[in-house]
Amino acid sequence: MAGTGRQVEALVASCAAPGDSTELFDSVSRRLRRMVPFDGATWFATDPVTTLATCPVRIENVEAGHCESYWDREFLVEDSLLFRNLARRSRGAGTLLAATDGHPARSARYREFLAPQGYGDELRAVFRLGNRIWGVLGVFRERGRVPFSEREVDLVASMGPALAAALRDRALTEPTPGTAPDIDRPGTALFDSAGTLCSFDEQADHWFTELAGPGWAGDELPPQLATVTAVLARAHAVAARRDGGPTSARLRSASGRWLAVHASYLHTPAGEPGPVAVVVEPAKSAQIAPIIVEAYRLTPREQQVTQAVARGLSNPEIAAGLQLSTHTVRDHLKAVFGKVGVGSRGELVAKLFAEHYRPSLHAAGAPVTHVQY
């Protein structure tokens, strides 16, 4: 037991080590597998505001054809141990066998995703800080092996805050300066009701190539486009009145550029279901500001003051609008300056709304890992 404790400490410490998000998932996966043996896994960073999947992604031992339906099932099927339900639990982790009282066949995910691949149990967890989810995990164990134990669930849950903090901090990594992109316009792609890509324009091809590399278009969207898959599934769920969440998400490409993905469920003039339109475009500063503000760990009041500064309001105007004294506004601003690492209002606005929005371009291919072992 003492040895396991040291391993957990080492895993938590590794979350603070330098490296990008892809390296983070690789290191944590290797360390976790030694403590909680598993045969397959899905690791996703998430947009903390919308909880939709974003980058990076790490897929381990999931057969071709199953990735595409992963998020459809999450939003369109009432099932046990959904991530949105885990997010409301204090522990934020659990197993499918425990959730189904030892009868996993009650779960559509077991029947359609786990069992066909030879898996008998799943341990799921959300990586949460406060009420924000910065990532999610599902690890699978083959049929015939001992199911995940409560001790293993507790162990995975214990690493959640450290991994959430690591993913949050990596949201602040500055993009690598580079050449301005040749196009900077929205791209549109159409998907049918089954989630199959029907058509796309030149700009969509550009953005998808930046995210997933050349040759991204095929029968199944690659894991690098998990955000698109998740937003598509949310759009279908909203159209079916199964979900009321937003049908948009933000993510960072390999170049460090922030992109926004939106999905809209269309109808024919006769009211019949039509395709789903997905628009990908460079994120506006106002769209990425909520993530950046979350990542800097500003309190709700500090966020309000920061947003007022971004609108150009003076301290007296901020004080009047928030019903505070000007002295209190100055104290909040001092705290914000310290957290963000700036010394003036101009530097604050530049740091939050310009530095993390600066476009850059280098090799295509988003932070994603697909592992078979």
Folded structure, characterized:
- The protein is an alpha+beta fold.
- It folds into 3 domains: 2-173, 2-Layer Sandwich (Beta-Lactamase), CATH 3.30.450.40; 187-286, Beta-Lactamase; 287-355, Orthogonal Bundle (Arc Repressor Mutant, subunit A).
- Helices cover 41% and strands 21% of the residues.
- It has helices spanning 2-14, 21-35, 70-76, 83-86, 96-99, 108-114, 150-170, 202-212, 226-239, 285-295, 300-310, 315-322, 326-340, 345-355, and strands spanning 40-46, 53-60, 93-95, 119-129, 132-142, 187-191, 197-200, 248-252, 258-267, 273-282, 368-371.
- The chain has a 6-stranded mixed beta sheet with strand order 3-4-5-1-2-11.
- It is globular.
- 42% of the residues are buried.
- The model is unreliable at 357-367 (pLDDT under 50).
In terms of topology, how is this protein built?
Blueprint: H1 2-14, H2 21-35, E1 40-46, E2 53-60, H3 70-76, H4 83-86, E3 93-95, H5 96-99, H6 108-114, E4 119-129, E5 132-142, H7 150-170, E6 187-191, E7 197-200, H8 202-212, H9 226-239, E8 248-252, E9 258-267, E10 273-282, H10 285-295, H11 300-310, H12 315-322, H13 326-340, H14 345-355, E11 368-371
Parallel strand pairs: 2-11
Antiparallel strand pairs: 1-2, 1-5, 3-4, 4-5, 6-7, 6-10, 8-9, 9-10
Brief sketch in words of this structure:
By secondary structure, the protein is an alpha+beta fold. The chain has helices spanning 2-14, 21-35, 70-76, 83-86, 96-99, 108-114, 150-170, 202-212, 226-239, 285-295, 300-310, 315-322, 326-340, 345-355, and strands spanning 40-46, 53-60, 93-95, 119-129, 132-142, 187-191, 197-200, 248-252, 258-267, 273-282, 368-371.
